[in-house]
Amino acid sequence: MSSNKKYWKSVEELNENSSIVETLRNNEFVEEIPTGDFLSDKESLSSSSTTRRDFLKYVGFSTAAATLAACEGPVHKSIPYVLQPEQIIPGVADYYATTMFDGFDFANLLVKTREGRPIKIENNTIAGAKFAANARVHASVLSLYDSMRLKVTKVAQKDANWQEADLKIKASIADAKAKGGQVVLLTGTLASPSTEKLIAEFIAKNPTAKHVVYDSVSESAALDAFEAVYGERALVDYDFSKANTIVSIGADFLGDWQGGGFDSGYAQGRIPQAGKMSKHYQFEANMTLSGAAADKRVPMTVADQKKALAGIYNVIVNGAGDAGNADATKAAKQLAAAGSKGVLVSGIQDKNAQLLVLAINQKLASEAFSTIGTRQIRKGSDAKVAQLVADMNAGSVHTLIMSGVNPVYTLADSAKFVNGLKKVKLSVAFSLREDETASIANIAVPAPHYLESWNDLMLTKGTYSLVQPTIRPLFSSKQFQEALMSWNGNGGSFYDYLKANSANYTNGATWNKTVHDGIALGVAAASISGSADFAAAANALAASKPANGYELVLYTKTGLGDGQQANNPWLQEFPDPITRVSWDNYVTVSPADAKKLGLENKIVANGGLNGSNAALTVNGVKKEVPVIVQPGQAIGTLGLALGYGKKAALKEEMQVGVNAYAFYNNFNNVQSASIAKAGGEHEFACVQSQKTLMGRGDIIKETTLTIFNTKDSKEWNEVPMVSLDHKEVEATKVDLWESFDRSVGHHFNLSIDLNACTGCGACVIACHAENNVPVVGKSEVRRSRDMHWLRIDRYYSSQDTFAEDNEKKESFNGLFGEKGSLGGFGQMENPADNPQVAFQPVMCQHCNHAPCETVCPVAATSHGRQGQNQMAYNRCVGTRYCANNCPYKVRRFNWFLYNNNDEFDFHMNDDLGRMVVNPDVNVRSRGVMEKCSMCIQKTQLTILTAKREGREVNVDEFQTACSAACTTGAMVFGDVNNKESKVAKLAEDKRMYHLLEHVGTKPNVFYHVKVRNT
Known about the structure:
Radius of gyration: 30 Å
Low-confidence stretches: 55-77
Shape: globular
Number of strands: 39
Structural class: alpha/beta
Strand order of the largest sheet: 5-4-14-13-12-6-7
Strand content: 15-25%
Mean pLDDT: 88
Distance between the termini: 69 Å
Oligomer: single chain
């Protein structure tokens, strides 16, 4: 029986003149809801019967109406080419090989462009291209389209042009030369042979000029030590794939230590092969990615780390029997036993510590430690920077020309630099943005993005890489190298100069081949080995005294790094792999210290995480910082990330956190600090409030190497059992549905190896870029409304190990009491003081028997023949039944329109930012569900490309954004029906299992049991 009764939600709606009702009515939908069309047909309404579908249609009218409004996308006029460029085919992507280096991050890349727009960063996999993109490099394509970039040259903070500025700079250089005044070129590490040659020519023409190299995050101690022993200012390029025993003392080599990029080699030794895998010891203060991956992690203050390093030196080099610490002694003995298959690294910013690293690896004759092909990516000198600031304040610097540096933000005593800058007759800043330094310099010149530039790089000695533009400059920028050529009186362009100079480094390769490949391999000679007073260095370290108060350990986060890309919303919203917090930096405190200081974290009613505020004081500088209580933090130490707290040239939403560079005195990342609880609470945006595994061993499966080698896989990779006809059978052999033949055609699977995954997050940002995933902002993330299609879950053990967690769970007996499951599971919510850590990437599992598909009332989600769970966005009416029925919680609901909406003022809210949008993937509107598509646009393109070329798809040619971005090999994607493919072989591996296997969903994503070498 049909009805046209009217219903109301509140008494206020009965008042026709209510302003509240009118406001809500106006703001509920962007466009007018077509209620008339929907309800005016009385005949159809009166004749309809109240079926389940009609009930959904009428009762869920507001959802349906929202969809009608939301799915009506805006119409934009498209302007065709008047003269179409021959090299651009509409709808077909072009790829250009290039190299990225911004003084902090570096990688060998392929840049995907569409219709002349760079839209995606890919890894260059050609031989010799060894550095892959991390999360920040993947996000750098969005920084190209940053609307806050410096667009025109400014003289005295007023718009001008380059010609006017160039005349002033030339006049100042001439005046300095005539008067004997000092001209200083202050740059970050350049690693560019052609640029360094230009600078040498500039200094030759201007004898009073000098070049000072400044790295905002210093590696000067390691550089000084290497220079003392080998006579060259460089860093060792370690190859962890050649090490069976790895000992790290304060070095987060899976993070940003000495530039990073070590994870690929490390992962090769972490996957058990022929019953063997590497053994990893980590001694550190902060919980890091390297500590999370270690087999044995020892929380330790930096003072104790120095003593441990000296002790290990005594065991390895002097043959002592004891390193002064039980864990250090054990690590030293295993290192000595490993010999050339062992390696030791350290991140302690102390020349003595770095000298001992060289001595230990020399004694071991470590294969992972090689002085052939040293890293050229850090060259800064702390002493020379300090001298420059002193010279500026003494008034002896006439002209200061800066490129790629922001000392007003990154120097601890930036006030001294600012005062010195006032005494400089002319200051010039070449900068991407009108940052803290550029905004007070006499002349600010907009620098081009690396995707708009020509350049060359030598990231490691003997390997020559080219940087080529992939788009014309978006603004009136001027490259620093072009300016140098102008000042040197060189004719021609920098491109011509670069091309002529490249012949010295390409080892006979032609210019065109080098541009095409992006890289040319030369021959690198080994650095000449030397020695130093290692014994004195060991004695100095052994005498290390603990800090007064707490040790503050400064570090760089996986998301923002040194802070250059602080205006990048992809990176701001990226959850930190360890804490799972986005849009913030914070001081990390151990649970024991937090209890003593009265600092706490708590989950509030809406599921958000709140934390205490703390007053942090270092060397008289005081800042109020929110607190994260961090399991695994060494007692007596605090952690704080650099790269936050920027204000200049940032949108308001991106101005988050505190500037930790203010604490970075003398470029030392360890400072004596005091901390006290401050008033109020801080609201964090944390995507994972649940911090433990809680004994659910079918989510993260793990075992030890001994058990892996000695016992049958059924014992350590147990298949869940269910009851069928009162008999116990394997859950994988029971179906609720009839299956169709999946052996015909392509069938896609994704393999994820928990041993190889380091939690680096490159896959998360790559997914963002490929699939136009929106940024929702801190407030929405706090409400658990993040839109990431791919998340990396981080689990802590409640006991010291996950194995002990499982033992505790299995010993539960009944509900109540000491061994009751209610109290027991409650206890397992609390992580151990030094927990084991596991990372697990989770996306849509593309179940062959998908729970979401059975509950969708409009068949918006359905299963494809190739194994993908597909979403038809224009059919979805937003009931969210699928999200409720998904056991993996991987579906995301568009609560709002995130595109072209001032409430979400990120890259999709301005024309420039939208240039990064991938045209192969539609931008979703509000009111619909979305989730991982297994990059269906990429798989179909691969199939069509092969068809067009008249061939079969090559083995392992299929890729998703996440698998292509994964540098460790943790993610492998492919056609499981092709038995020669990697993924087909991995599917047969005895470590393979499915997530929540007992549910019977039969996913097309599978995992590999984590094996620990303990």
